[in-house]
Write a structure and sequence with these properties.
Blueprint lengths: L7 H9 L5 H12 L8 E5 L4 E7 L5 E9 H9 L5 E5 L4 H10 L3 E5 L1 H4 L12 H11 L13 H32 L9 H11 L5 H34 L1 H6 L7 H11 L8 H7 L4 E3 L8 E4 L5 H16 L7 H13 L1 H22 L8
Parallel strand pairs: 1-4, 4-5
Antiparallel strand pairs: 1-2, 2-3, 6-7
Helix pairs in contact: 7-8, 7-9, 7-11, 9-11, 11-13, 12-15, 13-15, 14-15
């Protein structure tokens, strides 16, 4: 077969996992620059750290460019040499970075969740490799009803890094508190779960601990205070981000949404253009019930808990705050939440309020309007 079809040597290299030589990538780029362009419409790329797999097809779905092992230093040059087309990748580590680079070269970039790519792998579960994944990505992006992950800018990713780092410090603080409780239990001192009580009682018991136990608990308390200061510092960072972003200010007008939730939503979905309605956003966060319907009978189960667990937990915490102060408020949302709690129970009301806040947040971002409390 002539043209750019993979040779027998390339197939053997793909089978053994060796990299495609640089001269072969250079030959392809030179052929494109000399006018021997291929009618490439879709390109699927299997991302990795060092070696990438590229699979491109024409309008008829015929593979015209198959490169099972492209070095990292050559990937950008290879994609930039192609005519403008649709480039698809899995939404994984580094995907947004490559998406911004390829979009700057005139390509239409699509990111797909890995769970939506797996059904299109022709070799199935037992035949997973980089080349098969790239072909599956190329096939999945051609589906007319495929759902894509919103592309994030550098600013959005920078703001998300603040949230991820803060959450890591919170988890480290929780682990430190549990470590203190577990070690003190070995000496008959069982402390309650409340963090402030652990700090106070562990400090009071410090002088009564023997030998090295005093040293260990003292060091853990010092580490705990250091984590408290670090978390407070990142809370100030998030408050500053919220003050500087007009979209976050509009979201903070919603009941149950503070600076942390507002900045996380903005960093995650931007203006919300990837969602057609608020319910899609709520379903993307896993706040809608899963369906088990058949035979004309509708069966709704528990919420799916899909999507980002961090953002979903923030909305749930905000919904609990709305219910806590609903008895003292007279607004429409508080009255609706209380009535729902009486009919369906506390936790179902919490999830319902969180889902409503997700829909309202999408509407505020998509329409660019300030929230007005209904009468």
């Amino acid at each position: 077969m002539k043209g750019t079809s993979p040779s027998r040597g390339a197939r053997l290299e793909a089978a053994y996992g060796n990299e495609v030589p640089r001269w072969e990538v250079r030959r392809l780029i030179n052929s494109l620059q000399k006018g021997k362009s291929m009618a490439i419409v879709y390109v699927g790329i299997d991302l990795a750290k060092n070696v990438f797999a590229v699979h491109a097809v024409d309008e008829a779905g015929k593979p015209v460019l198959v490169r099972p092992a492209v070095p990292r230093a050559r990937l950008h040059e290879l994609i930039a040499s192609l005519p403008p087309c649709t480039v698809a990748m899995e939404a994984c580590s580094g995907a947004h970075h490559w998406a911004r680079l390829f979009a700057a070269r005139g390509h239409t970039v699509r990111l797909i969740a890995a769970k939506f790519v797996t059904p299109y792998r022709m070799s199935g579960v037992r035949g997973k490799n980089d080349a098969a994944d790239a072909a599956a990505i190329c096939e999945a992006v051609q589906r007319p009803n495929m759902r894509f992950v919103p592309l994030k800018s550098q600013q959005q990713q920078s703001q998300l890094m603040v949230h991820r780092a803060r959450q890591g410090y919170v988890q480290a603080r929780t682990a430190c508190i549990n470590r203190i409780r577990g070690l003190l239990a070995e000496f008959g001192q069982v402390l309650p779960l409340k963090a402030n009580t652990v700090r106070r009682q562990a400090g009071a018991l410090l002088e009564d601990l023997p030998g090295w136990a005093n040293t260990v608990i003292g060091d853990l308390l010092s580490e705990l205070y250091r984590l408290d200061e670090r978390i407070a510092q990142y809370d100030r960072h998030i408050a500053q981000i919220a003050r500087e972003d007009e979209r976050a200010q509009r979201l903070m007008a919603l009941p149950g949404i503070g600076s942390t939730t507002a900045t996380a939503v903005v960093a995650m979905i931007g203006n919300g253009h990837e969602f057609n309605c608020g319910r899609q956003f709520a379903a993307w966060l896993g706040l809608t019930p899963g369906q088990y319907s058949s035979g004309g009978k509708t069966r709704l189960g528990r919420i799916t808990k899909a999507g980002d667990s961090y953002l979903r937990s923030l909305l749930i915490l905000g919904a609990r705050a709305v219910l806590a102060r609903a008895k003292a408020s007279t607004d429409a949302i508080g009255s609706w939440a209380l009535a729902l709690q009486q009919r369906r129970g506390y936790w179902k009301a919490v999830v319902a309020v969180a889902a409503k806040n997700a829909r309202l947040a999408w509407a505020v971002l998509r329409r660019g309007e300030a929230f007005k409390m209904p009468a």
